[in-house]
Amino acid sequence: MYRASEHRPTQAVVNLENIKHNIQLYQTKKASHQQIYAVVKANAYGHGAIPVAKTAIEAGVTGLCVATVDEAIQLRKAGISNIPILVMGLTLPYGIAEILYYDLTVTVSDLSFFMLALEQLKKNQQETLLKDRQLKVHLKLDTGMSRVGLRTKEEVIAFVDGIQAFPWVDWQGVFTHFSTAGGGPISYIDFQWNRWQELVDLIPASVTLRHFDNSAMGLYKAIGGQSDIIRLGISLYGLNSRDTVPNDLVSDQQLADYHFSPSEVRNTESQLDLKLKPAFQLITELSYVKKVEKGTCISYGASYVSQEDEWIGTIPIGYADGWLRAYSQIPVLVEGHACPVLGVINMDQLMIRLPKQFPLGTEVTLIGQDGKYYNHPSLLARIAGTISYEMLTCISERVPRIYI
């Protein structure tokens, strides 16, 4: 395979065709009035924001979602224009000039944002920006996530009345987030849905975009079909929000080898049973191979002691690359063999037990398929006691991405 660097073989391989495939799956499921926005925050969940965003637009999405203004500006500077970019996270009013200049849509949850933004423009003598531009906003409602957003009818009514004082604001949308669609008690969706209906009924009809669908909610047709936008996040990248493991990629035998029973990790909800294709592969190569005698101490703290004469391989990846010490129980794949990590993971390297001697430069797969094994991010996350979102977004920028 092509190497991104001549100096270090560790790299992530991102399959953009799989990104397109996953979007197309949702396009076949969505209602005719619904739009799909691709969520490319956190460097597109570690996949690379700019290439993923451009691919998603080619595949037909009509908007993008990010977490910060800086993420949105990065996309605009990369030539991504004429498409809405919704900043879903906290936005401070002090960067109002750039928000207007780059034509961004921001999330608000109180009127003070507009007052402070106007003060900032006056302070910097930038009021002329409002002559030919409007500030595009979506209002956030807190229906049960308890993160940000308006929570009561009184708060919503006050916002509806107060926004009239700011004619330079283009109020385009209102949204919420269902906290248990991807995990937790499903009954809580009903609670949030009822609160959403109570609050959104107070919003003027001129606010046309009303949305709450994430990857999981987009498949709950009884409710999800009523959202104007599907914010496609984890499923854009071929995974599902409950971190279940597909049987077409990971065999029952592999689950047994990794000490799982199918009932623990398989999907039991048909509405989530999409043929998603993971887009992320993480590979490196053996950089050092040696045979050690029984009783040899390996890694920091002598955290592993060989039980017999063993072949040991060193690979150039560690927690500075985002392969965290918590992943010490995750096997890596070498020519179809699942090889355990020995001792604790180092900052830049780690050691594994090999079944036999392999030549230097032999490919090692940390995430992805090798022979009968598929190191699926959802399966690996379960081993490490985390979620696939965290695993992917933690892969650092030191690991180059290549695109196929």
Could you characterize what this model shows?
Catalyzes the interconversion of L-alanine and D-alanine. May also act on other amino acids. The chain is of the alpha/beta class. The chain folds into two domains: 207 residues, Alanine racemase (TIM Barrel), CATH 3.20.20; 151 residues, Lyase, Ornithine Decarboxylase, Chain A, domain 1 (Beta Barrel). It is 27% helix and 22% strand. It has an eight-stranded parallel beta sheet. Strands 1, 10, 15, 16, 19, 20 and 21 form a seven-stranded mixed beta sheet that branches. Strands 11-14-18-17 form a four-stranded antiparallel beta sheet, with no helix packed on it. The longest helix is centred in the first third of the chain and has 14 residues. The radius of gyration is 24 Å and the shape is elongated. 40% of the residues are buried.
Write the layout of secondary structure elements.
Blueprint: E1 11-14, H1 16-29, E2 35-39, H2 41-45, H3 49-58, E3 63-66, H4 69-77, E4 85-87, H5 96-101, E5 105-108, H6 112-123, E6 135-140, H7 153-162, E7 169-175, H8 187-200, E8 209-211, H9 221-224, E9 229-232, H10 252-257, H11 262-265, E10 280-285, E11 288-292, E12 297-298, E13 304-305, E14 310-315, E15 332-334, E16 337-339, E17 341-342, E18 350-354, E19 363-370, E20 373-375, H12 377-384, H13 388-393, E21 401-403
Parallel strand pairs: 1-21, 2-3, 2-9, 3-4, 4-5, 5-6, 6-7, 7-8
Antiparallel strand pairs: 1-10, 10-19, 11-14, 12-13, 14-18, 15-16, 15-19, 17-18, 19-20
Task: Describe this protein with a few key phrases.
404 residues; alpha/beta; TIM Barrel; Lyase, Ornithine Decarboxylase, Chain A, domain 1; 8-stranded parallel β-sheet; 22% strand
